[in-house]
Prior knowledge:
The chain is an alpha+beta fold. The protein has helices at 114-123, 135-149, 163-174, 182-188, 193-204, 208-225, 230-236, 242-253, 257-262, and strands spanning 21-28, 34-40, 45-52, 55-59, 62-66, 70-74, 80-85, 88-95, 108-111, 156-158. Strand 4 and strand 5 (62-66) form a beta hairpin. The longest helix has 18 residues, at 208-225. Helix content is 38%, strand content 22%. Helix 1 runs antiparallel to helix 2.
Amino acid sequence: MPLLSELAADWADPDLVPRPVLSIGAVIESPGQRHEMDFHNHRKGELLLLMRGVLTCEVEGGFWLVPPQGAIWIPGGVSHKVTGAGAMEGYVVFIDPAAASNLPSACCALSTTPLLRELVIRSSTLPTLYEEQGMDARLTTLLVDEIGAAPTGHLHLPMPVDARLRKIVEMIIDDPADRGTTQTWAQRAGLSERTMARLLVRETGMSFGRWRQQLHLMLAVKWLGIGSSVQQVADRLGYESSGSFVTMFRKAMGTTPGRYIAQ
């Protein structure tokens, strides 16, 4: 995803910018087009804040979804892949490890506050080489503190490493409406039901049913975030009715799909 396209050519590598915080904003107007930045890493940590659209981020052992008004924190040195689709508006904040000592040591979704969002937006208007003393420096320090205080979100899916389990993951993502049983999916991957269950718990900490529900939740938020109706999402996930989908969503997220997106 070309979030870095706004950087001047001299500062194409955020690790080379001699400031503890670097914020960049971007608007991408390309409905229906897929944007992808393959696996990469950098020394500085990275906050991705999305105002409009939906992003997914994958690291080894985990898959996160970033909904509108949501964010994800990626520590420095962590290899990650970012994918988005359609029209998006967002910000990326690179933070030097020396300034990020109070930030999470592992990749995590963050629930953003109005103050955090405004600080990110304001910091993106600073000069690349802002003054290291005075108001600009105080603003970036407050931004880092606010990121550290942000509560973690729930749109995280542990990803198995085992190649046979990854095959199941890919098949479910390709056809999330397939309501096959644990035995059915195990047979498709050349595993016994018991072996699949044991591997999945060992690598993700979840049963197959719980893991698939979490994937469905993430896909639902993604589709709702780009304008799909509740009925369309229920159909794509294979629910018999929109009501049964809403019930599942409310139990897992504490609110209805419509209220979640509105918030």
